[in-house]
């Protein structure tokens, strides 16, 4: 993982699941990780664990649905390390339900976190990366960003959007400014994502299949692989899913 060493990596949604696993793996590989999430105490615990293992990490409380919070996150990273090499747009929510349940507040929340959060993250790092003429933006989509299933319409729409945003970013920036854009699409993974579900029907489905999920470490390794490739190599998309649900 020689190309990961000393890179400054911002990770959103870093207080658990894929974000936590990615932060720990990248820190073990020599990256300087900047953890961001809403649960400040949990972030402090993870930072301490990374430091105890010999890694380098800092954290800041941030809500990806707040453009101001995300701007402050970028300023914090620049103040701490002087540059930003990678952004992992990982934060997401999945309160799935059937359309006829009309859970409009939950639709809004998914749009705010899963789409606006990604855009706000890009907006915070793009000027710095363009000035550096290098950088890597990794956006977490989902297998739901490729195929819609009953109860997942709005969630899938947000993840389709992440793919579109990532592809547009790649087309606009990779050849001109050297900024790489990667989509990571996890299948069922053992994270806290199911905790955001309030629909009884969908929660019952989640309870039946949750045991088939793969470890967040599998997704973290995919992210690390994309980062570790040399600057002249762009990994545009990686899909990782459980063998049992393939």
UniProtKB/TrEMBL annotation:
Keyword line: Oxidoreductase
Name of protein: SDR family NAD(P)-dependent oxidoreductase
DNA-binding among keywords: no
UniProt cross-references to CDD domains, sorted A to Z: SDR_c
Domain of life: Bacteria
Coiled-coil intervals: none
Keyword Oxidoreductase applies: yes
Organism: Paenibacillus plantarum
InterPro entries (UniProt xref): KR_dom, NAD(P)-bd_dom_sf, Sc_DH/Rdtase_CS, SDR_fam
Family from the record: Belongs to the short-chain dehydrogenases/reductases (SDR) family.
Residue span, Ketoreductase domain: 7-189
SUPFAM superfamilies in UniProt: NAD(P)-binding Rossmann-fold domains (SSF51735)
């Amino acid at each position: 993982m020689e190309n990961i060493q000393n890179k400054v990596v911002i990770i959103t949604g870093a207080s658990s699941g894929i974000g936590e696993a990615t932060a720990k793996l990248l820190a073990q590989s020599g990256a300087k990780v900047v953890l961001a999430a809403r649960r400040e105490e949990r972030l402090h615990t993870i930072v301490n664990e990374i430091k105890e293992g010999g890694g380098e990490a800092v954290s800041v409380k941030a809500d990806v649905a707040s453009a101001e919070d995300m701007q402050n996150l970028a300023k914090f990273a620049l103040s701490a390390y002087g540059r930003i090499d990678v952004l992992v747009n990982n934060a997401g929510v999945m309160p799935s339900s059937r359309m006829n349940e009309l859970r409009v507040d939950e639709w809004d929340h998914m749009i705010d976190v899963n789409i606006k959060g990604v855009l706000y993250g890009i907006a915070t790092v793009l000027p710095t990366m363009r000035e550096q003429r290098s950088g890597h933006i990794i956006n977490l989509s989902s297998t739901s960003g490729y195929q819609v299933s009953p109860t997942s319409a709005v969630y899938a729409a947000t993840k389709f959007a992440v793919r579109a945003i990532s592809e547009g970013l790649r087309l606009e920036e990779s050849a001109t400014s050297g900024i790489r854009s990667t989509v990571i699409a996890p299948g069922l993974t053992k994270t806290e994502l199911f905790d955001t579900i309030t629909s009884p029907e969908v929660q019952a489905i989640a309870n039946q299949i949750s045991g088939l999920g793969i470890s967040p470490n599998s997704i973290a390794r995919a992210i690390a692989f994309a980062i570790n490739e040399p600057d002249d190599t762009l990994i545009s998309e990686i899909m990782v899913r459980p063998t049992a649900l393939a």
